[in-house]
Write a sequence for this structure.
């Protein structure tokens, strides 16, 4: 377990240094190491944490490369497909089956929204770090609006959107104070 922790730390260092592809490889190596170990509750949590880090590195890499619009279009297409499935599900005669289908589709829609929120928040953070606060804040507001439409408690409020937004607002205010633009701050 300590060996895996070392590998994960190395991956986190690469992630922090914005070497996303290297971080992904290192995290995947950590996952391979976990395959050789006895699966306990603690190990399962570690595996899920590593998978989350892989996803985070992939997400940061997407945003960093500017592939975001393509990814957002994928989300829109997926939502369109799910809405069409929902229209079909509403026509099912058997009430129990109709309810089950509609609930499953709603959950799938919420999952897509959750992924979209993660992307918007990550882009918002990176835009703020490059001092593009206007676009950054728009992303946070879009993420908040999408989060408000999520129904499933499994996906609602899982990302600290408002916290990240608040941190970046404070960063902008500090920057404006340094420039002595007190009214803007």
């Amino acid at each position: 377990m300590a060996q895996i922790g070392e590998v994960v730390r190395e991956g986190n260092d690469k992630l922090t240094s914005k070497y996303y592809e290297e971080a992904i490889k290192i995290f995947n190596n950590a996952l391979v190491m976990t395959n050789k170990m006895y699966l306990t509750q603690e190990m399962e949590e570690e595996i899920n944490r590593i998978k989350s880090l892989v996803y985070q590195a992939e997400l940061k890499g997407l945003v960093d490369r500017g592939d975001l619009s393509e990814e957002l279009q994928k989300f829109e297409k997926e939502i369109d497909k799910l809405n069409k499935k929902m229209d079909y599900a509403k026509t099912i005669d058997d009430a129990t089956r109709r309810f089950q289908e509609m609930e499953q589709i709603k959950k799938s829609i919420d999952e897509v929204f959750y992924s979209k929120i993660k992307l918007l928040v990550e882009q918002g953070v990176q835009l703020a770090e490059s001092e593009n606060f206007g676009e950054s804040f728009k992303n946070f507001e879009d993420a908040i609006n999408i989060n408000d439409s999520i129904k499933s408690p499994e996906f609602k409020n899982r990302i600290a959107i408002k916290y990240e937004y608040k941190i970046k607002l404070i960063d902008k205010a500090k920057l404006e104070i340094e420039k002595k633009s007190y009214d803007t701050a």
